[in-house]
Amino acid sequence: MPLKIANIGAPQLLEWNDGIEQAERAIEMIDAHALAIHLNFLQEVIQPEGERNARGCVDKIKEMAAVLTTPVIIKETGAGISQKTMEKLMDSDIVGVDVGGAGGTSFAAVEKYRAKRRGDRIQEELGDIFWKWGIPTPYSLMEIAEMCHDAGMTVIATGGIRHGLDVAKALALGADAAGVATAFLTCDSLEEKMEVFLASLKAAMFLTGSATLEELREVELWTW
């Protein structure tokens, strides 16, 4: 069954007086199963028109999660989520986190090109400087997966997931699920690409002696 997640920005919630109503409208528009509040402060810093106020962000997220009847998750958009950030949200009602780590789409890069089209050379150069800013997805998972699971939260890995081996790595590092964009959006055949994902995930499971996804999550990890 498709999982529909509505999306709204934390920086915008801080600016709106009717944040609850806006969130409920976003949920209603797609009959969403959950609402994601995204933490895109890197993007906002590079955007010529970006909203750079972060004061009160944690309290606003907690308020939204407590009031809304639809489950709320938080997500990053390419800069990853740190242990320090998650510690601030441990006593909230959020049910999950999408790490959105570095390694996939860089919204600093996206905003760099937007600034270039506008002739804003300062923001364009800022985008260059912060193009690769962020916590890579594997490191973000290693920092927060265990504490999130202890709190009963679901962990989603996004950011640089290119094939089934990346999915396997994410699951082994503590993710409950993985999300993909670029690999599916740029392929010639979506059906073939999905088959490659499945085949490479199965291959990773076979090579690690994992008969189930649960066993894959328990494999011994090595770093070099």
**What's the overall geometry?**
globular
CATH hierarchy: architecture: Alpha-Beta Barrel
Helical content stands at: 40-55%
| Helix/strand class | alpha/beta
Mean pLDDT level: 94
- Summarize the helix and strand pattern as letters: EHHEHHEHEHHHEHEHHH
User: What's the level 1 CATH class?
Assistant: Alpha Beta
Attribute tags:
single chain; 224 residues; alpha/beta; TIM Barrel; 6-stranded parallel β-sheet; 12 helices; globular
Architecture blueprint of SSEs:
Elements: E1 5-9, H1 10-15, H2 19-30, E2 34-39, H3 41-46, H4 57-67, E3 72-76, H5 83-87, E4 96-98, H6 107-118, H7 121-129, H8 137-150, E5 154-157, H9 164-172, E6 177-178, H10 182-185, H11 190-207, H12 213-216
Parallel strand pairs: 1-2, 2-3, 3-4, 4-5, 5-6
Helix pairs in contact: 6-7, 9-11
